[in-house]
Amino acid sequence: MTLEEYNFSVKSYADGLYRFMLKFSDVETAKDIVQDCFEKLWLKRETVDGTKAKSYLFTAAYNTMIDNKRKNKRIDFVESLPVNSGSSQMGNPDLHELLHKALSNLPEIQKTVIVLRDYEGYSYEEIGEITGLNASQVKVYIFRARVTLKNHIGSIANVLG
């Protein structure tokens, strides 16, 4: 990989990589992972083909995110529990918040493939390269994730309460 190809990769893929990581982590962690991935790419620039930089970056980010999730599994889950004030809020919930809640309930692999496909626009083959799955496995996980999201969001009980 040449310096020009590396610079092109930074300009072309940094934003998408950051958005991808934001779906799985907070802002600071996403920034750290993106920076770490570009550092890894720079260190391996002589062995990485410039045309495969996008796949390399997203694969590295995905693997780093999985490693971070495994390390943080022991953190007390009480922080993630919703605070119940005792009063019911009526009205229309924020659709973004509803979708985020539905995504957070998906298994990690389903969340990953749905974000890569529907948010970032990757092909099944590209998602397979990033996650280490074959294209048919990717399609199955996306289908299952979409059914789960549809059931969660489509349920009137979830919309009203």
Please describe what this structure looks like.
This protein has 161 residues and is mostly helical. It folds into 2 domains: 1-73, Rna Polymerase Sigma Factor, Chain: A (Orthogonal Bundle), CATH 1.10.1740; 94-161, Winged helix-like DNA-binding domain superfamily/Winged helix DNA-binding domain (Arc Repressor Mutant, subunit A, Orthogonal Bundle), CATH 1.10.10.10. Helices cover 69% and strands 0% of the residues. The chain contains 8 helices and no strands. The protein has helices spanning 3-22, 27-43, 53-71, 95-104, 108-119, 124-131, 135-154, 156-160. Helix 2 crosses helix 3. The longest helix has 20 residues, at 3-22. The chain is globular, with a radius of gyration of 18 Å. It starts with a helix and ends with a helix. The relative contact order is 0.11. The model is unreliable at 76-91 (pLDDT under 50).
What is the correct CATH architecture of the largest domain? Orthogonal Bundle
Tell me the count of domains. 2
Question: Would you tell me the overall average pLDDT?
Answer: 80
Question: Helical region count?
Answer: 8
Question: What helical percentage do the residues reach?
Answer: 55-70%
> What general outline do the C-alpha atoms trace?
globular
Oligomeric state of shown chains: single chain
Question: Can you identify the CATH class of the largest domain?
Answer: Mainly Alpha
- The name CATH uses for the topology of the largest domain is Rna Polymerase Sigma Factor, Chain: A
Evaluate the radius of gyration.
18 Å
SS strand fraction: under 5%
Parts with pLDDT < 50 across at least 5 consecutive residues: 76-91
The run of helices and strands is HHHHHHHH
Q: Let me know the number of strands.
A: 0
Give the structural class: mainly alpha
Distance between the termini: 53 Å
Major sheet summary line: none
